[in-house]
Amino acid sequence: MSYLFHTDEDRREMLKSIGAESIDEIINDQVPEAVRMKRPLDLPPACNELALTAEMTRLAARNASADSHVCFLGGGAYDHFIPAAVDEIASRGEYYTSYTPYQAEVSQGNLQVMFEYETLVTQLTGLGVSNASLYDGGSAATEAVLMALSMQRGRNKVITTDVVHPQYRDILVAYLKNIDAELVVVPSDENGHSKPMIDAIDDQTACVLIQHPNFVGQLESVSEIAAAAKEAGALTIQVFDPVSLGRLKRPGDMGVDIAIAEGQSLGNPLAYGGPYLGIMACREELVRRLPGRIAGQTTDRRGKRCWVLTLQTREQHIRREKATSNICSNQTLLALRATVHLSLLGPEGLKETADHCIAKTAYAKEVIAKSDRFEVVGEGPSLKEFVVRDLGADVDGLLAHARDNGLLAGIDMTPMCVGGSEGSETEVALPSRYEQCFLVAVTEKRSRVEIDRWAKVLCEAPSMATV
Amino acid sequence: MRNQQSTQLLFELSRAGRRAHRLGDLGVPSVNVDELFADEALAETPPPLPELAEGDVVRHFVGLSTLNMSVDTHFYPLGSCTMKYNPKRNERIASLPGFLNVHPLQHESGLQGLLELLYELQGMFAEISGLPGVSMQPAAGAHGELAALLVAAAYFRDQGSDRSVVLTADSAHGTNPASAQMAGFKTKTVKSNANGLVDLEDLKAKLDDKTAVFMLTNPNTLGLFDSQIEEINQLVHDAGALIYLDGANMNAILGITRPGDFGADLMHYNPHKTFSGPHGGGGPGAGPICVRDFLAKYLPGPVVTRVENEGASGDDDRYTYHLTSPSVDSIGRVRSFFGNTGVLVRAYIYLRTYGGDGLRHVSEDAVLGANYLLSKVKHFLDVPHGDRCMHEFVASATRLKKEKKLSAMDIAKRILDYGFHAPTVYFPLVVDEAVMVEPTETESKQTLDAFVEALFRITEEGEELIHDAPHSTRISRPDDVTAARRPILKWTDAAGESAT
Amino acid sequence: MARDPSTLRYAETHEWVDVQEEGGDKFATIGISAFAVEQLNDLVYMDLPEVGRTLEVGEEFGEVESVKAVSPLYSPVAGEVVAVHTDLPDNLDNLNDDAFDFGWILKVKLSADLPDSLMDYAAYQKQCSEAG
């Protein structure tokens, strides 16, 4: 049956060696009668590969995707190009069917990849040390906050703003609920900048959490905010976009203490939200509080350079309730993809990717602004993401019209705003100025033809105001 | 003949000016980035990443892959990790564009196929666990523990209760106390008795009106189903506390018994173990959680719901699927977006492949394989906790260590030379010199026999041969002490200057 | 002058204490015993407190780590930390050979008498032989 091996004869011989009449006898010896299942599991019947493949192919075809549609969606996950070599390498069974390198001697491939990944992240961020990855960007932001709180005894305030990813803040609220910490979400200014948070920093502040570029695509005054935090003895945590670093200053060069990112943009498919990887780097002196696995270099008995998991006393399997985090895995396969991706891009490829995003985003802003119906919200340049207001006040209908025309044209921000269906709590909501707005992301994959069609479809959409 | 260059680092292979990936013409008007952005925002140069040709990159990573043992290449009896075969159909189906290239913030009207799959999967998880409330948000088993404990905390807060202590077993995974701590609880440890089961006297002594949750692994990390389960259930619930089941060992009990039927109120699955998701070199996994109905409103969201359509014409439009928050009392999110969808899709394909009866066979063969190995191994290696087990067992090298200076670590290292991955060693902590073996159901009797033969030969080998093992791997035993004493956590160039 | 282990007092948690009087005040030098160092096996890291910190008897003041274990360090005395052996964390190898001289960790200005629970050398030896 499916992936099982034993023939009836195998089973007989094995039972004989065990000295049992049947498998049931072995199980019934241990599992009390009262808790045993008396009926079969009520699941769909077994299905062979041919039938299942056909059925799943039909099911998959019922989903719109970045293949069937042209994708202008962002909000923390992006339709960037993935070179074929990334898929080819990551589909090797030696990578994806191995596990945590508990036996370093037969895991040097994974360990070296982890070490290379960590080095690439330090190069990318300008910070001294990186772990081998966490679950995703959102939970990594919260892990960074917990790390800061644990280092800042006697300080329990966490300051962030309403233009940091709403879902990231949602996670923070859930994690902080039962521990001694106060979350302060400072309103951004009318341009969607977080500078007003500076006034909220005080001697009780453990850390500030900012996103740059932020959720609405605006650039933040990172150096200024980090300097103010440092002055007050607080740590600065920045959520960054890896692709932006082809052009923007690195977190470590702006006074940031802990930098985290969603690593999906580096060679990982959209996959409806996961699996992704959380990138996390920090200043070298904070390494003892860094959560997650870390690979390090050493030598073997013959003096040969090799790699091991190290600084493991930080982790749960040794320190148990005193560990830096409960995390006991890392996203090695996704980190491998990011490592291969960055190796293929190199410094110039990363810069070129950022330049394409910038130019195409600027072009998209320009063409959409020509319409009377739309207004680009927020001043200043964009890396790859910006906000458009629908003066026709029908974002929902507008985006439905675009979907019918083969476009995933943007993300409706209305439900995320204060009082909206996703953002009823102010701690996790966007400011009300983004009602009837949508968030647009333009990656290097978008062509002029696609952008023109996007603008045309949106501009020709029926509007409630005009109908 | 091994390619020696493959173990050079990317950074050592780098040559200025090499490049694999190019985009070419913009196709839109170019912009002057230096003018568009303020100076304070821009880097002077891009990050100092290595510069490589595509051929460099492919040969490097393919070369490195050959230094790993994996399920596809070797028997991998790593106890507690359920290293079963990772079906290839899972990979191909999960890579269909309609699953793989779906954006997490797409409108649900274009997600009906995927949401149907996820809805069905929620139902399957509920059926297998006997616990009706399901959230598939958590990204890993430990993440599921944390999410479920946050659910428990929300429940007790709603009850106006000040229960603040989580009890964990001394044989439990380290994640249990670490998760409890992160969820804001204090922890106390409950001892194991001489049989490796929960010490009921110690449990009684530690249960009181401050106890919120007892975290139980059953079958436990010794591979034993706790036959006192009914009494444990009674004791914990009489004390007003909840039972959390660490689902790490679900592979032993699929269709045989259900956590919800033996008293668990909350649990997590490890689909990357039980439901064949590949382990990915350490991740990704997923950690869906199941809870009793009275706890379901606190679950993290979103979850999938469905509404029956009126006047539907065929199967494809009978229902409309929605993403919703479990309730206004939900703890919120524990990660961004829906969850580790890719891992969940693989679990769904696996469950559909076996069906209900097939799943029971999975557990039966997992139990059979482990007991067969145990019946052979016990003749030359002590197995302190009995003659029978569920899906794994824990042997001890204590006697061999005294008699022949042969430790669990030595056995683990030497078995690599025989072409097998090592069992888990030094866990659980309640067994000295622990050697924890989990064969899984996807190994043949021939493989198990060969493994036993190798283990036996090792116990007969000379001390020196074993202490220097492994002999056949690219490296010998690494120096962990220096690695931790003087950590080198990134490559630095020959001048000793970090590129950062 | 080498410290003589047999003249020191010991805590159950393996810290040794050497008390001297200087200018009317009592100072305790504190370290961990050779037995403890051997048990911990290949120390890799030590976390020390700041000078000026006030310690209670039994308070955790730092940690030592081997590759796969962490052990908290507990103060055997009450008082204020007046000196910390900052060279020690970088030279943990030396602790193996010299736990009682080079291996000193802290100097504390005592704010109270030594607790009665501290053992003399013979009693501590007995504890170690029973544990080993």
TrEMBL record, chain A:
One of its GO terms (biological process) is glycine decarboxylation via glycine cleavage system. It is an enzyme of class 1 (oxidoreductase). Its EC number is 1.4.4.2. Keywords: Oxidoreductase. InterPro entries: GcvPA, GDC-P_N, PyrdxlP-dep_Trfase, PyrdxlP-dep_Trfase_major, PyrdxlP-dep_Trfase_small. GO terms for molecular function: glycine dehydrogenase (decarboxylating) activity. It holds the Pfam family GDC-P. The glycine cleavage system catalyzes the degradation of glycine. The P protein binds the alpha-amino group of glycine through its pyridoxal phosphate cofactor; CO(2) is released and the remaining methylamine moiety is then transferred to the lipoamide cofactor of the H protein. Belongs to the GcvP family. N-terminal subunit subfamily. This is Probable glycine dehydrogenase (decarboxylating) subunit 1.
Automatic annotation (TrEMBL), chain B:
GO terms for cellular component: cytosol; glycine cleavage complex. The keyword Signal does not apply. It comes from the Bacteria. Coiled coil: none annotated. It is an enzyme of class 1 (oxidoreductase). InterPro entries: Aminotrans_V_dom, GDC-P_C, GDC_P, PyrdxlP-dep_Trfase, PyrdxlP-dep_Trfase_major, PyrdxlP-dep_Trfase_small. Its EC number is 1.4.4.2. Residues 363-467 form the Glycine dehydrogenase C-terminal domain. The keyword Oxidoreductase applies. It catalyses: N(6)-[(R)-lipoyl]-L-lysyl-[glycine-cleavage complex H protein] + glycine + H(+) = N(6)-[(R)-S(8)-aminomethyldihydrolipoyl]-L-lysyl-[glycine-cleavage complex H protein] + CO2. One of its GO terms (molecular function) is glycine binding. Residues 147-280 form the Aminotransferase class V domain. Pfam families: Aminotran_5 (PF00266), GcvP2_C (PF21478). GO terms for biological process: glycine decarboxylation via glycine cleavage system. Keywords: Oxidoreductase, Pyridoxal phosphate. PANTHER family: GLYCINE DEHYDROGENASE (DECARBOXYLATING), MITOCHONDRIAL, GLYCINE DEHYDROGENASE, DECARBOXYLATING. The glycine cleavage system catalyzes the degradation of glycine. The P protein binds the alpha-amino group of glycine through its pyridoxal phosphate cofactor; CO(2) is released and the remaining methylamine moiety is then transferred to the lipoamide cofactor of the H protein. This is glycine dehydrogenase (aminomethyl-transferring).
